[in-house]
Amino acid sequence: MITYVKGQVTTIDNDSVVIETDGIGYEILCANPFHFQEQINKEVKVHTYHYIREDQQNLYGFKKKEDKQLFAQLLNVSGIGPKGALAILGAVSVPEFVSAIEQEDEKYLTKFPGVGKKTARQMILDLKGKLVVWLPDEQNESTIFYQEDLTSKEVRAHIDDAIEALKALGYTDKEVKQVRTELQKAKQGTVDDYVRQGLQLLMKT
Questions:
Q1: Which of 47, 160, 198, 203 has the greatest number of C-beta atoms within 10 Å?
Q2: 22 beta partners
Q3: In what residue span(s) does the Helix-hairpin-helix DNA-binding motif class domain sit (predicted)?
Q4: What is the DSSP string of 109-134?
């Protein structure tokens, strides 16, 4: 089992990043690969889940250990596969998801791609009470933008990267056009901050 990969980010694609370590390039599938845009050609540590089936072997990567653990929990839910689990993690923070599970908010859960009422109920049934350990410590962190002293050029670059990440998740140019306007009004933040807010805006439309 590959628990994590530590190395240099060499390539970023629409659904994966390549981390090179000791001359070996590991292709790692991610919810939002463009989150690593700021670390290109730099060393990072990516928490990985080694998904093994008869017909495939994939590495799924996460910046936070909590995201990896939630991914593993989601795979245990009937009707949720790796693609669906990544889509959920790309659209919401761990505490937001845990809160929806604990409140049995089926309406919120069915906003995720591929999640209908039956799957939402199954997630609540399988996960309620098992994830609350992450709720207190993560809650504040997930709602605060990183305060950076950015130039207008850097802000535009972060928003551009966030828009590309949203497109990589399947949203159209038309859908992200209005989101860009809203992100330009938001507080300064990292690419990850902008992607998360953009996804929240898209889920409300």
A1: 198
A2: none
A3: 72-91, 107-126
A4: HTTSTT--HHHHHHHHHHHTTTSGGG
CB of 11 closer than 8 Å to CB of 23: no
Task: Give the global pTM.
Answer: 0.65
Q: CA-based diameter of the chain, in Å?
A: 50
Q: How high is the pLDDT of residue 141?
A: 42
Q: What is the pLDDT along the chain (205 residues), one digit of tens a residue?
A: 789 999 999 999 989 999 999 999 999 999 989 888 888 999 999 999 999 988 889 999 998 888 999 999 999 998 899 999 998 988 888 888 998 999 999 988 998 888 899 999 999 999 998 887 776 543 434 433 334 455 677 778 888 888 888 877 777 888 888 788 888 777 667 777 788 788 777 776 5
Q: Which of 109, 103, 79, 69 is nearest to 91 (CA)?
A: 109
Angstrom distances, CA of residue 158 to CA of 37, 39, 51? 9, 13, 31
Give the sign of the dihedral formed by CA 103, CA 106, CA 175, CA 67: positive
Residue-range domains of the chain with CATH: 4-62 (2.40.50.140), 66-142 (1.10.150.20), 152-204 (no CATH)
Task: Say how far apart CA 200 and CA 126 lie, in whole Å.
Answer: 25
pLDDT one-digit tens code per residue, 24-70? 999 999 998 988 888 899 999 999 999 998 888 999 999 888 899 99
Q: How far does CA 178 lie from the centroid of its chain?
A: 21
